[in-house]
Amino acid sequence: MSSATEHRDRAAVVSTGRWIAAARALESTRPDRLFDDPWASALAGEAGKAALATAPYNPFLPVRTRYFDDLILASATDCPQVVLLGAGLDTRAFRLPLPATSVLYEVDYPEAFDGKDSVLGRSPAACGRRSVAADLAGPWFPSLRAAGFDSALRTIWVAEGLFYYLTAAAAEALIRSAAEASSPGSSLIADVFGTGLLDLASMAPLVSARRKAGRELPFCTDAPAELFRHGGWRRCGIVNPGQAAANFGRLALVPDDSGPGGNSTLRTYLVRATL
């Protein structure tokens, strides 16, 4: 990949953080909001809000955020470290009632953090917070360890909206690296797209451009449980958006006995893998 292409890809990923912040800001204005993020609007800026306005409202985004919030809080007492992989403009260190003794690490490109602290200002974090500049497609763990990460402590790893932006090799390496750096009782929560995403008409321009350039397509899989178990995680639970645990009254109800696979590859898998 040329340096110019890599720069464009990184810029696109960083801009996505503003779009996601805009989605959190929109959710925070609702009387039935699933969470409240008072910093999201300023973090999104006009660019993020404009990007959000170009596409139809996607109810999955607030559902995913709330689902991950609940999993993090349910494990936070037993897991004193939280690592947000591809954190960008995330504000969980401030808006979640995490134990004061917890340490939350935000890992992302250095430019993904640009302007973030100026928006957060003097707002007190609920727990310890450390920003870690690293490329998650490369050797990112040494930077995390240098920031104080302790492999002897239980950890909650969070990969929200991340795997789509990685190659298959990078996704597999990240999953394995997190497992190797974790103590028993740790967990990795993530969302992964099924391969049917790549067949959507809206994806056709990107798929065509990447194939012409000989570049790998965004990472998707129809076997998420096998992916995480192969990466060293002993147990893997999967929830489909719309099932009772990931619905919150916003999505079409999916029966809990529908299973994680079925006949459709057009799925999003919400994964919780544990050691």
Structural write-up:
With 275 residues, the protein is of the alpha/beta class. The protein has one domain: Vaccinia Virus protein VP39 (Rossmann fold). It has nine helices and seven strands. The chain has a seven-stranded mixed sheet, sandwiched between helices. Helix 1 crosses helix 2. The longest helix is centred in the N-terminal third of the chain and has 26 residues. The two termini are 35 Å apart. The mean pLDDT is 92.
Low-confidence stretches: none
When the domains are counted, the total is 1
Helix content: 25-40%
Number of strands: 7
Instruction: Just name the CATH architecture.
Output: 3-Layer(aba) Sandwich
Q: In the CATH hierarchy, what is the class?
A: Alpha Beta
Topology overview:
Blueprint: H1 3-28, H2 40-53, H3 60-75, E1 81-85, H4 92-95, E2 103-108, H5 116-120, E3 128-133, H6 141-146, E4 155-159, H7 168-180, E5 187-193, H8 204-212, H9 224-230, E6 235-239, E7 268-274
Parallel strand pairs: 1-2, 1-4, 2-3, 4-5
Antiparallel strand pairs: 5-7, 6-7
Helix pairs in contact: 1-2
Brief description of this entry?
The protein has helices at residues 3-28, 40-53, 60-75, 92-95, 116-120, 141-146, 168-180, 204-212, 224-230, and strands spanning 81-85, 103-108, 128-133, 155-159, 187-193, 235-239, 268-274. It has 275 residues and is α/β, with parallel strands linked by helices. Helix 7 links the parallel strand 4 (155-159) and strand 5.
